[in-house]
């Protein structure tokens, strides 16, 4: 731990933990997770977590921000989580956290010529028109 704590309900402010130290707390006796660069000691909450102990244990010692946000926790859950904050991730270690891979939507490269982009729909339209005409003539 680096730094010292303040007073009041946010005594964790100013307390910085290195990533290496957080990573050591990845077991049932000491379970720490990182959410938005804040360190949470959720050891006492393992048995009470509505999603089960395993969910927290899988994230222990690492960054759980993406998974926490994906679940869509309620405002009550977010307020409760504030009680487990023990400090912040040291600013020098924040860049070491794995960033989620960006999902880029790309279009497939097409080697077909531009005429096929309109010929296929035109042929389909003609077939539909002929089928409709045949159906109406009966």
Q: Explain this structure to me?
A:
- It is a single chain.
- This protein has 138 residues and is an alpha+beta fold.
- The protein contains 5 helices and 5 strands, in the order E-H-E-E-E-H-H-H-E-H.
- The chain has helices at residues 19-24, 53-59, 65-71, 75-81, 116-137; strands at 16-17, 26-27, 30-35, 38-41, 85-89.
- The protein is elongated.
- The protein starts with 15 loop residues before the first strand and ends with a helix.
- Residues 3-8 have low confidence and may be disordered.
Layout of helices and strands:
Layout: E1 16-17, H1 19-24, E2 26-27, E3 30-35, E4 38-41, H2 53-59, H3 65-71, H4 75-81, E5 85-89, H5 116-137
Parallel strand pairs: 1-5
Antiparallel strand pairs: 2-3, 3-4, 4-5
């Amino acid at each position: 731990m680096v730094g010292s704590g303040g007073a009041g309900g946010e005594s964790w402010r100013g307390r910085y933990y290195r990533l290496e130290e957080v990573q050591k707390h990845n077991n049932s006796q000491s379970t720490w997770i990182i959410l938005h660069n804040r360190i949470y000691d959720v050891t006492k909450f393992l048995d009470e977590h509505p999603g089960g102990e395993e969910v927290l244990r899988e994230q222990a010692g690492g960054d759980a921000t993406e998974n926490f946000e994906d679940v869509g926790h309620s405002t009550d859950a977010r307020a409760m989580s504030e009680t487990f904050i023990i400090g912040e991730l040291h600013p020098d270690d924040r860049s070491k956290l794995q960033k989620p891979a960006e999902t880029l939507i790309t279009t497939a490269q097409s080697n077909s010529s531009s005429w096929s982009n309109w010929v296929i729909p035109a042929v389909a339209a003609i077939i539909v028109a002929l089928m409709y005409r045949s159906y109406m003539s009966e």
